[in-house]
Amino acid sequence: MRILQFIIFFSIALVIYFVFNYTIYIYGLKAFSISPLSRLIYIIAFIAFASSYFLGRILERISIGSISNFLTQTGSFWLAAMVYFLLIVFLINLLQIINHFIPFFPAILRSPPLQIKFYTGIISIVVVSIVLIAGRINALNPHIRQLNIQINKKVVGSPKVTIALISDIHLGALVGPKQLRKMITLINEINPDLVLFAGDVVDEDLGLVIYKDLGKCLQEIEAPLGVYSVTGNHEYIGGIDAAIHYLQDHGITVLRDSVTQLANGIILIGREDRDCKQFNGFKRQPLKELVKDINPSALLILLDHQPIRLSEAVVNGIDLQLSGHTHHGQLWPFNIITSWIYRISFGYLRIENTHFYVSCGFGTWGPPIRTSSRPEIVKIVLRTRSH
Q1: CB burial string 211-239: b at 16+ within 10 A, e below
Q2: Measured by CB atoms within 10 angstroms of the end CB, which terminus of the chain is less buried, N or C?
Q3: Per-residue model confidence as pLDDT tens digits over 313-356
Q4: β-pairing, 320-323 with 354-358?
Q5: How far apart are the first and last CA of the chain?
Q6: How far apart, in Å, are the Cα atoms of 175 and each of 147, 187, 208, 237, 331?
Q7: Among 196, 188, 190, 172, which residue's Cα sits nearest to residue 365?
Q8: How many CB atoms lie within 10 A of CB 130?
Q9: What is the pTM of this model?
Q10: CA distances from 289 to 83, 285, 294, 316, 318 (A)
């Protein structure tokens, strides 16, 4: 049944990808048919860019290396370019419709149509290239965001607890040693008592993580209260058992519908990702089952990859829930969509006595760029009641 679902999903995605690319191709072909040479160059370049992602992912299954990595990265940039070329096509058509009823185009746009289309094509490429470059620079420059939270509960030892929250790293083809090294440096600069990963630490293919030996960097994280993670949907996509074993072999404790008490008395609860049923056929435990034997006076922190059903955390006495998953859309204007889908797409919210934070994430998925948010590591300064 799950194989059939995957085939259906993949087929729909492939059709959508083809339709979007065909739309861009047709408009581009009209723009670059000003000469036989420009037409030929355009056709070759378009086919190369549009097919590179799939060729790279196919090669990864055969042999991981520089060629497959180059093709995958090139194709990933094209995924973002495709979004913005489509937006340009939409904008051009919208302006033409408006101009048809309320003429406002200047005289220069009444030049020979072939030249206008050519110049429009060149300007579109320049604009999209600038967006991709700016988005890539943004994606490569994470920052530390500080969040101060006061919870009126006691802990053992210091009433101040510093937590480093990291979500959606997506280690693999696009996020490699250089970005991971930067992440480790920023985490250790925070000097956290506790490090929490809110899922999607690895991307779909663990083979690339092993090939690049990325786990070695993870072992350099320093936190006296420990380093913990929960599963995300991408750990399931790539093979949950292998991903869990790899993370735990490199110093990260993965909580799977389980509860642990830290040395200072804080109770940490980690939920399975909600997509576990889709991939493994089992349902995650209800939150009320996980907390039923916990002393309600204890400070409760919940890690749940996807920020859904926030009322569950409120009803079950959770003091702080930390999530990720949304990337806050990653590309504008998808952040508008994620803000509509999730009550919190990105940032902090308090509902009654429960604090929530949804991180926009550290890494990228699909396109290696960000235009709707800046990658982050969240420094949470948790202040509790003194003894």
Answers
A1: bbebbebbeebebebbbbbbbbbbbbbbb
A2: N
A3: 999 999 999 999 999 999 999 999 999 999 999 999 999 999 99
A4: parallel
A5: 55
A6: 26, 17, 10, 17, 17
A7: 172
A8: 11
A9: 0.90
A10: 43, 7, 10, 10, 13
CA 76 to centroid of chain Cα atoms: 13
Token pair belonging to 7: 């085939």
- How distant, in Å, are the alpha carbons of 134, 188, 371 from that of 307? 29, 27, 21
Token representation of residue 78: 């094209």
List, in sequence order, every residue forming a beta bridge with 148; answer none if it has no partner.
381
Residues sharing a CB contact under 8 Å with residue 378, sequence separation 6 or more, in sequence order: 144, 145, 146, 147, 163, 164, 165, 166, 357, 359
The answer to whether 134 touches 371, Cβ cutoff 8 Å, is yes
Q: What is the dihedral of CA 243, 244, 248, 251, to 10 degrees?
A: 60
Domains of the chain: 2-138 (no CATH), 143-385 (3.60.21.10)
Type of residue numbered 202 = V
- Order of strands, sheet of 376-385, starting from the edge strand that comes earlier in the sequence: 143-154, 376-385, 160-166, 194-197, 227-230, 253-255
Cα–Cα distance, 282 to 355 (Å, whole number): 29
Residues whose CB is less than 8 angstroms from the CB of residue 6 and which lie 6 or more positions away in sequence, other chains included? none
Asked whether the beta carbons of 343 and 324 are under 8 A apart, the reply is no
Q: String of b and e for 316-351 (b: at least 16 CB within 10 Å)?
A: bbbbbbbbbbbbbbbbbebbeebbeebebbbeeeee
Tell me the two tokens of residue 199: 């899922």
Q: Which residue has tokens 């090939």?
A: 211
| b/e per residue 263-295 (b: at least 16 CB within 10 A) | ebbbbbbbbbbbbbeebeeeebeebeebbeeee
- Is 254 in a helix, a strand, or coil? strand
d(CA 188, CA 118): 51
pLDDT in tens, 258-301: 999 999 999 999 999 998 877 776 788 999 999 998 988 999 99
